[in-house]
Amino acid sequence: MEKKRLSRILEKTEGAILKELAEPLIEKYPVQVLRKPSKTMVMIRMRETVAKTEFYLGELLACEAMVEMNHSRGFALMAGDDLEKVFYGAVLDAACNMEYPQKEELLRRLQALEKELEEKEQQEIRMHQATKVQFETLDTNY
Amino acid sequence: MGYVAVTGGQEAIEASIELLKEYRAKGCQELDIQVVRDRMALLIDRIMSEAGLYAPDYAALALKQCEGSPEEAVFLLRAYRSTLQRNYVSKTVSGEDMHIRRRISSAFKDIPGGQMLGATYDYVHRLLDFSLKNEKEEELEAWRDSFVQSHAQNEYVTLSDTAPRVLDLLRAEGLLEDVEEDTSEPCDVTMEKLPLPAPRSAILQTLTRADTGFVSGLAYSDIRGFGMSHPTIGELRYGKLSIEVVYPLDEEESWYVGDICVTEVEGLMGERPDKSGIGVGYGCVFGRNDTKAIAMAVLDHALTLDIDSPTSDMEFVLLHGDCLEMNGFISHLKLPHYVTFQSKLDSLRHRKKEGNWK
Questions:
Q1: Whose CB has fewer CB within 10 Å in chain B, the N or C terminal residue?
Q2: What value does the mean pLDDT take over residues A119-136?
Q3: Based on the domain organization, do B257 and B163 belong to the same domain?
């Protein structure tokens, strides 16, 4: 699974679910913490439209972790300060980077979570699309 | 002017800080941080924008800690931010990729993708709603469930929430002012002193972090006649931007960090005497804050004009709008200036005694 896709699923899923997915792996394989879960910041680089200048919009509070599980590395960086969640995220990334018998099952779970997230997103879009507006101009001169 | 330090007052200061807690503890209702974050979202947006740190939970915590004072909350967030390491710079994001939740144009009635009001106070009656005094959480929850239900899907149609830029139409037609593309590395005003004249990247970073009231007031003065702007909103869009970094274990891949909500404005500012085409001002701020984003666009354009106006004076605009700096400076006037003031009085008395007195 592409990292952009995996990371989106991990970030948008509740920490308790990531824990449920990661714990059987942690019990089965040795996990070494390479980068302790900790807070950090991501500077947001943005491009504007007038001169296409790139500028710094501000910083995003985030937390990060890196682990090694069964000789496979895993990384996570997530907005917010949920250190436990980011640790489980890194474990699941490591799981996606290694080959093991239950990997297909993990990927199926992640895809199911992705589907739920997409449905939530579509619901949000529908709520906003109800506010689409078509203004009409009147034949009146002021 | 020299300053002379004072000492003493330790016990009174400690008692004052304790008294602050008593002020903060007024009433008997628990103030849950999540409630502040969720139900005071526009205030949270403003704090994050002025602090330059996107951290809704911490903005709520800061507001709880300082009895809801925006300037104190910004101070707390900035102070906390300075304790963190910035380990990442995001991949460059653009408003074009925004997942739009509001999009309007006051220049064009019909825009590709359509106008969407989103959640806005623009059309509400400004009448106090006394029914909220006794609003019950259960009733609100029931209303929310029914609202969500009413927007449940009937058939599976995938909706898009991205749209092209309105001003691209004018760009394609060659009706916008020609501006040379800026390919320079961005300046970071949090890491280096603001250079003057400031590069465009520093101007935009400074304006987006500036105090909402300051930016709005200056833009208002500019439009009223102290400047030359006659703005029309080409496009205002609000929505989510996905923040990504390079995945450190494989640089070919991207890692999604999270979404941030921003308001972005492209303002059509009119023609200037020496150039053809409509000049554009750009504004982009954290959160849902139409006024600040529009005001930023006005000032962005005003700063490119070579006229004798306060809003075209780069030093004036960029050095006086930082929430922390301006409030810090004003606030310091409350601190003891006994010796410096006595020195002024001495000089005055001396001049009066010598008859050098007008």
A1: C
A2: 90
A3: yes
For A66, A85, A105, B35, B158, the CA distances from A15, given in Å and listed in that order, are 17, 5, 19, 20, 28
Q: Are residues B77 and B202 in the same domain?
A: no
Q: How many domains does chain B have?
A: 2
What is the rounded average pLDDT of the residues B209-215? 97
Closest chain A CA to residue B106:
A135
How many structural domains comprise chain A?
1
Asked if residue A126 belongs to a domain, the reply is: no
Residue among B87, B160, B253 whose CB faces A64 most closely: B87
Q: Answer whether residue A13 is part of any domain.
A: yes
Is residue B358 predicted with pLDDT exceeding 80?
A: no
Average pLDDT over every residue of B223-229: 91
Query: For B250-283, how does the pLDDT look when each residue is reduced to its tens digit (9 = 90+)?
Result: 999 999 999 999 999 999 998 887 888 999 999 9
> Does any domain span residue B310?
yes
**A138 touching B (Cβ < 8 Å):** no
Phi-psi category of residue B174: left, alpha or beta, with phi > 0 → left and psi -120 to 50 → alpha: left
Residue B270 is predicted with a pLDDT of 86
The reported pLDDT for the residue numbered B5 is 75
ipTM of this complex: 0.95
Please check whether residues B236 and B308 belong to one and the same domain.
yes
Query: Per the CB < 8 Å rule, is B255 touching A39?
Result: no
pLDDT at B43: 98
- Contact residues on chain A for B186, CB-CB shorter than 8 A: 45, 53-56
Confidence class for position A140, pLDDT limits 50, 70, 90: low
pLDDT of residue A55: 98
In a domain, B282, yes or no: yes
What residues of chain A lie within 8 A of the CB of B182, using their CB?
Answer: 51-54
- A2 touching B, CB under 8 A? yes
- Supply angle C-alpha B56, B58, B64, rounded to 5: 105
Residue with structure tokens 């300053």? B3
**Contact B218/B311 with Cβ under 8 angstroms?**
yes
C-beta separation of B311 from B222 below 8 A? yes
Q: Taking a contact as any Cβ pair under 8 Å apart, which residues of chain A between 96 and 125 contact chain B?
A: 97, 122-125
Q: Domain of B162?
A: 95-120+142-321
Helix (H, G, I), strand (E, B) or coil at B133: helix
